[in-house]
Hints:
heterodimer; A: Rossmann fold; 10 helices; 10 strands; about 35% helix; B: mainly alpha; two-stranded antiparallel sheet
Amino acid sequence: MTDTIAxxxxxxxxxxxxxxxxxxxxxxxxxxxxxxxxxxxVNAGEVTCVLGDNGAGKSTLIKIMSGLHxxxxxxxxxxxxxxxxxxxxxxxxxxxxxxxxxxAVVGLMEVWRNFFLGSEIRKGSYPxxxxxxxxxxxxxxxxxxxxxxxxxxIDQPIGTLxxxxxxxxxxARAVYFGARVLILDEPTAALGVKQSGVVLKYTAAARDAxxxxxxxxxxxxxxxxxxxxxxxxxLGRRVLDRKRSEVSLEELTAEMAGGQELxxxxxxxxx
Amino acid sequence: MSTTVATKNPSPAPAAPQRPRRSLVGxxxxxxxxxxxxAAIVIAIFFLISAPAFRSLAAVSTVLYASSTIGIVAVxxxxxxxxxxxDLSSGVAVTTSALTAAITSYQLSLNVWVGVxxxxxxxxxxxxxxxxxxxxxxIPSFLVTxxxxxxxxxxxxxxxxxxxxTVATTNISDMDGFASAQAVFASTLTLxxxxxxxxxxxxxxxxxxxxxxxxxxxxxxxxxxxxxxxxSARAVGVPVRKVKIGLFMGVAFLAWFLGMHxxxxxxxxxxxxxxxxxxxxxxxxxxxxxxLTGGYGSAAGAAIGAIIFGMTTQGIVYAGWDPNWFKTFLxxxxxxxxxxxxxIKNVAARRV
Lengths: 271, 352
């Protein structure tokens, strides 16, 4: 399975090279400050985990990186070039692909149509040029099989696959279309233990193939399995920023569970 | 540690499990229009038995004509519904188009083709405004097009009264270009013993084009995607706004086309007609398998839905019954269609 990811990964990716650098990035929605002063670095061949409770600003951060919203302050540098994305297409063009937890795929559409959605193969470039359906079915089928995802029928609606398989198809798609940075938004949130394992394996495989991965989650256990770098957000601010060597799972878990606040709460509740 | 996780996966025996080919029955049942096709056959048999006049060739051409006047707009409405939106203004937009063409050519004493083109621009603008408002404001298309419906209904009557002094347009049959426009929009072809209105041909053409666009082109893929999961489609780079505005304009184009037919078939237009037809188009699309929630349906289904209504409106007359019952039939059909679609969708999803 690692083969295919490595096969499609950009050859120019050098492990450790910075792909995304953010410094002091913030976002204001009207009177609401959703994100403030976030520094973040995504290196090739590394997994940067962004952890945080609900409302911590994780979604805002993803939206800035994937082009759904543009940041209102700070510097956002991709491949050494400062950018402000206006649409998901611009972000995709920079090789940043996002796989969303709940909206990774269109459930009623066939597996192959989902795989190629937004990047369809056509027999010509004029408007209304016919799709090369045969080629798309063949490629989608091959790519998924190589990755160990066996769908009964490439024509089946993707909604009939399991949650883990759907996430994997979405990741496989992003990698196939040459993503250099993969943003995974809570990929394991709605999944069982086994399914989460499958998704985590793909995350690791993408990292080993040299991609920069941003792994967004509120589960420190999953993050610690694959992460090289950990950032915890709270109420739009960064409260922890450590390399893997500088932090233990216990610390991460405690910090996520509320850290100091939790300790105070425990003290308060103790009679 | 994580490297072990990655490599431990022993590339699960590349010998892919043999896939059972989907059975032919399964494939047929998975089509969106299958329920409508079955219903159409039952209704045809029913009228063939109960109404002797229904068995003549003349009846065939009448039924096809009635179906085509519903089916032309219903095809566009089906595509729009697959794209997850709704248009309540399509019925009166037909009348608006016809009135615009008639009044423009008559009041300015121009060739009717000028009126036809002006009316096309107006119709496309209505579609654009519908789509743009829906995308810009995020208000459900139900409400946006309900507003358009009332605006157009009022404007149809008001403007006509203002310019002509009556509630109908002046007869334009002796104006320049009328004959050629009539040949395009409202002529009759004789195929052996069968007299076929040209709208039947256009209806077939539009349905085939729509089917092809839907299943064989990138735009079709995008239509399914924006209706099935708009946020997801946007995230992978589908231009959601363009697709949806395009769909509204498609409905408006077909409404214009039907408006031109009505104008050149009758040479004059009553400004109050068309109200209520939007529901007939929507029901034809739903009976044909389009989901109200979007992301599923077919153009052929809408055509079959139109045939069902064509057969029923005419069949009731041929059988000598009170045609007022048609609306009752419409309601029952809609309910049955929704139930059948729901059932078939579940069966199809399980069968794969």
